[in-house]
C-alpha cells in the first residue's frame, strides 16, 4: 500500500495542500462497486478516496461529486448529462502525461470517476520559492505537459483549469500526469448559484475571464502561467482583489520573469511574451509548437 505522502493530494482540485486529515468526512463503506479505503483529498467539487475495485482487485483514486446535493431539478439533469459526457471524453484519452480514467458512475445521487492512483506530489509543492526545481528541469516538465495538451486538444478535449495543483509529478520515477479533465466544466454549471468562477482565476486566460469561447489556446495560456510560477515562485499577475486581478490579466502586461529571477535563460522573457499574450491569435498555435519552443529554450538558454 502506498503511504500518504505518495498518494495524498493526488486529485485534489483546489490549490491548497490538503491531506487525509484535512476536512475529513465520515468514510462510507462503498460507492458503487468500489470499496472505500481512505479519504486522500478534498476539493471544491468533491472528495477523493483511495478505493478498491473488487472485480479486478485494483486500487484506484475515486473522485466523488455529490450532484444531488449541489444541483436540483433541471440543473441536476443538466449536470448529470454534462458529467457523464465529460467523463466519457476524458476517458477516451490515453497519453503518458494524462491521468487514465477507468470508469464513471452514480450511486444515490453521488457521481464518481475511478482513475489511476498516482504517485508523487502536486506541482504546487514546487512553486514555493525555497523549493523551486532547476529551470532546465521545469522547462522540460512543462514541455511534456504541452505534449499532453496537444494530444487532448487534437481529441477535442479542453481542460479549462490547468494549474500546478492539477498536475502530479513523481521525481524518482519522472512520472508526470495532468488530472481533473472535465471537472471545470461541471463547476461552470454551478457558478450562477454558488458564485464559483470557472477555473482558477490566477491561471485563467483573458477570454476565459471575459466569458468568451474557451479553446485549447486558453489551456496554453494557463500552462504559461504555470511555468512562470514554477520558475519564479510567484504569479505573473497579482492584485489585492479579484476585480484587480481580473483587470491585470485582461489588460495589463505581466512582470518579466527575469526581473524576478535574473539568472533565468535570456530568452525566457520572449517566450512569455508569446505564451501570455492577451490575444489568443498571438500565442503559440498548439501544444506541439509550445513544447518545441520550450525545448529550444533549453538547448539555447543564452540566446
Give a quick precis of the structure.
With 303 residues, this protein is α+β, with helices and mostly antiparallel strands. The protein is 38% helix and 17% strand.
Polypeptide structure, described:
With 303 residues, this protein is of the alpha+beta class. The protein has 2 domains: 4-115, Phosphorylase Kinase, domain 1; 121-299, Transferase(Phosphotransferase) domain 1 (Transferase(Phosphotransferase), domain 1), CATH 1.10.510.10. Helix content is 38%, strand content 17%. It has 11 helices and 9 strands. It has helices at 4-7, 67-70, 73-91, 135-154, 183-194, 206-209, 216-232, 242-251, 257-260, 268-275, 287-299; strands at 30-31, 34-43, 46-53, 58-65, 101-107, 110-115, 121-122, 167-170, 175-178. It has a 6-stranded antiparallel β-sheet with strand order 1-2-3-4-6-5. Strands 7-8-9 form a 3-stranded antiparallel β-sheet. A hairpin with a 4-residue loop joins strand 3 (46-53) and strand 4 (58-65). Helix 4 runs antiparallel to helix 7 (216-232). It is globular. It starts with a helix and ends with a helix. Residues 1-23 and 187-198 have low confidence and may be disordered.
CATH superfamily membership of the largest domain, which one? Transferase(Phosphotransferase) domain 1
**Tell me, what is the CATH class of the largest domain?**
Mainly Alpha
How are helices and strands ordered from N to C?
Answer: HEEEEHHEEEHEEHHHHHHH
Shape: globular
Strands in their spatial order, largest beta sheet: 1-2-3-4-6-5
Q: Level of helix content?
A: 25-40%
User: What count of domains describes the coordinates?
Assistant: 2
The total count of strands amounts to 9
Here the CATH topology of the largest domain equals Transferase(Phosphotransferase), domain 1
Strand content: 15-25%
Mean pLDDT over the full residue set: 86
Radius of gyration: 19 Å
- The CATH architecture category of the largest domain equals Orthogonal Bundle
- Counted by DSSP, the helix tally is 11
